[in-house]
Write a structure and sequence with these properties.
Belongs to the glycosyl hydrolase 63 family. InterPro entries: 6-hairpin_glycosidase_sf (IPR008928), 6hp_glycosidase-like_sf (IPR012341), Glycoside_hydrolase_63 (IPR004888), MGH1-like_GH (IPR054491). It comes from Actinomadura algeriensis. There is one protein chain. The chain is mainly alpha-helical. Helix content is 45%, strand content 4%. The protein contains 15 helices and nine strands. A hairpin with a 6-residue loop joins strand 8 and strand 9. Bound molecules: (2R)-2-(alpha-D-glucopyranosyloxy)-3-hydroxypropanoic acid (9WN). (2R)-2-(alpha-D-glucopyranosyloxy)-3-hydroxypropanoic acid binds next to helix 2.
Length: 427
């Protein structure tokens, strides 16, 4: 397939997944609106349909809680049984600060300020774009305030995730050391996620039991973040989430500047995240950023795709940047397989070619790395990542993820962010 046809096919996939109010990640596997999916989708739509890109973000922001929390799922009309856990599980309607629309109670990486700024950057109608920025700025600022204040559990400058789903990289090996404390022996539930995808491409049952137990724990605390350190068994700082938070603050500073607001608080917030990343998550021995348990201060050891996300940080010391790029190009990641970038160190015994976030190549993490290496002054690596990603999509279609060894498509078919980010990478 040539590049022109890939672009047309991408638009076709996004149209097929559009409900009239939002774009589903996949009609079968994920039949609701997901938070960071919508941000990636808006970034792609900004290239072809500004109006829909704006509607995508607006639809999500309408589901924001009064505290600024932007939920990771906004439930639509798909039958309650189509996806587990459904809206009843989270019981958001029982929480005073939640909106009327039914949502989950956890968050996802805040790519949304980047999406809003991208929509504006691609707009032909500059006035409409500025009006849109002025409309969404207070909501995005509230989203970041929530993360910077309520989720910085011990004042160390980083936002904690309280569930692996919040990372967006659900069963990454990065979470393994922090899950044994979770008691997954709760009530029975039926997994719906394997109705459409092979079992060896999804998280294992023990992981799922922990996911449900953690979601119940947070829900039963009334989503009260002040109780997390005492009562919740998973409070972890993730380099990917925090690098995106930092990038988002810099985008907010730019948005504030364009709408006549004050950029200064956003620069300060971004600097705080930078200090937290360097002081807490940089592992000098391994030459990468790793996850850290807020409660114990213990750090993980897994070298995953998340470790490279701080390439988005413009203040990264040159020596740290160079060590990261060395690891990225090494046989552990880009140098060790024909279809990079794998989400986990290829040389680890726990690397799995097909299992979700434990090895496969994903389009959204490739896109983030593409932006990161460009920022780090390496257009040559950016070209390799971009060419290889588009090649995978041309050969295997808009699959959810890909085997980094043979390039075969895995997971859901017609997956929205694979199509959307192709549009951005094609441009
Ligand atoms: C749980 C929708 C989402 C993505 C995540 C991805 C997967 C859900 C699931 O699908 O997570 O949120 O059911 O596995 O891990 O990144 O946002 O595409």
């Amino acid at each position: 397939m040539d590049h022109g046809r890939l672009g047309e096919a991408a638009v076709g996939t996004l149209n097929a997944n559009w409900t009239g109010a939002a774009t589903l990640p996949s009609r079968t596997q994920y039949p609701h609106q997901w938070s960071w999916d919508s941000a990636f989708i808006a970034i792609g739509l900004a290239r072809v349909d500004q109006d829909r890109a704006r509607r995508e973000l607006r639809g999500l922001l309408r589901a924001q809680w009064d505290t600024g929390r932007l939920p990771h799922i906004v439930y639509g009309d798909a039958g309650g049984e189509a996806y587990f856990p459904g809206p009843g599980f989270w019981d958001s309607r029982g929480v005073p600060d939640a909106p009327a629309v039914r949502t989950s109670g956890i968050v996802q990486p805040p790519v949304h300020a980047r999406a809003a700024l991208t929509i504006c950057a691609r707009a032909q109608d500059r006035d409409a774009a500025r009006r849109f920025l002025a409309e969404v700025y207070p909501k995005l600022a509230a989203q970041h305030r929530y993360l910077g204040e309520r989720r910085d559990l011990d004042g160390g400058g980083l936002a904690a995730i309280v569930h692996p789903w919040e990372s967006g990289t659900d069963n990454s090996p990065a979470w393994d050391p922090f899950l044994p404390d979770v008691d997954g022996t709760g009530p029975e539930f039926v997994r719906r996620d394997m109705d459409h995808v092979a079992a060896d491409e999804r998280p294992g049952d023990a992981d799922y039991a922990a996911y449900i137990a953690l979601a119940e724990s947070y829900r039963d605390l009334g989503y009260d973040d002040l109780k997390l350190l005492d009562k919740h068994p998973f409070t972890v700082e993730d380099p990917l989430f925090n690098a995106i938070l930092l990038d988002g603050e810099l985008c907010l500073a730019e948005i504030a500047r364009r709408v006549g607001g004050d950029p200064e608080p956003h620069y300060l917030a971004a600097r705080a995240v930078h200090r937290g990343l360097m002081g807490r998550l940089w592992d000098d021995e391994r030459g990468t950023f790793v996850a850290r348990d807020v409660r114990t201060g213990a750090r993980g050891t897994a070298a995953t795709i998340a470790g490279f996300a701080p390439l988005l940080d413009p203040w990264l010391p040159a020596a740290v940047r160079d060590r990261l790029l060395d690891l990225l190009l090494s046989p552990a990641f880009m140098g060790g397989c024909p279809h990079p970038v794998p989400t986990y160190d290829l040389r680890e015994p726990g690397f799995e070619r097909h299992r979700y976030w434990r090895g496969p190549t994903w389009v959204n993490t490739n896109w983030l790395l593409w932006v990161g290496v460009l920022r780090a002054g390496r257009p040559d690596i950016a070209r390799t990542i971009c060419g290889s990603t588009l090649g995978l999509l041309e050969r295997a279609g808009f699959r959810e993820y890909f085997d980094p060894v043979d390039g075969s498509g895995r997971g859901a078919h017609d997956f929205s962010w694979s199509a959307a980010l192709a549009l951005d990478m094609l441009a």
